[in-house]
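re: the backbone from monday

yeah here it is again, tokenized this time
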């Protein structure tokens, strides 16, 4: 059974940085794609960044140049480094591997 645990969210001022972590278990992480998604109040969940198992990455236009997805397969962990944060980045952030979602971690950016 795949389990995902996110951490690293919090409250930060605009322009600040946060790094989210997603620890996976029960899956061959090195052969799995990993996605970071977010959902703001009253909005649909949207893809933020995606890491294919071969290292290729994709980003939403709204975060390109500010966010970086990375992974440490030896630790079964994915990361989302978020720089130059904006109030519109405020949301609950989720990681996804295959059909499993983590519990989410709140990111709040104050202006």
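seq for it, each position gets an aa:
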């Amino acid at each position: 059974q795949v389990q995902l645990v996110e951490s690293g969210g919090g409250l930060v001022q605009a322009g600040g940085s946060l790094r989210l972590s997603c620890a996976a278990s029960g899956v061959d992480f090195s052969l799995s794609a990993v996605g970071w998604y977010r959902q703001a109040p009253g909005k649909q969940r949207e893809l933020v960044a995606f890491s294919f198992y071969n290292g290729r990455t994709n980003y939403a236009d709204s975060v390109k140049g500010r966010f970086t997805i990375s992974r440490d397969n030896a630790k079964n962990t994915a990361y989302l480094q978020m720089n130059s944060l904006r109030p519109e980045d405020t949301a609950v952030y989720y990681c996804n591997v295959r059909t499993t979602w983590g519990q989410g971690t709140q990111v709040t950016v104050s202006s």
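DSSP finds no helices and eleven strands in the chain. The radius of gyration is 13 Å.
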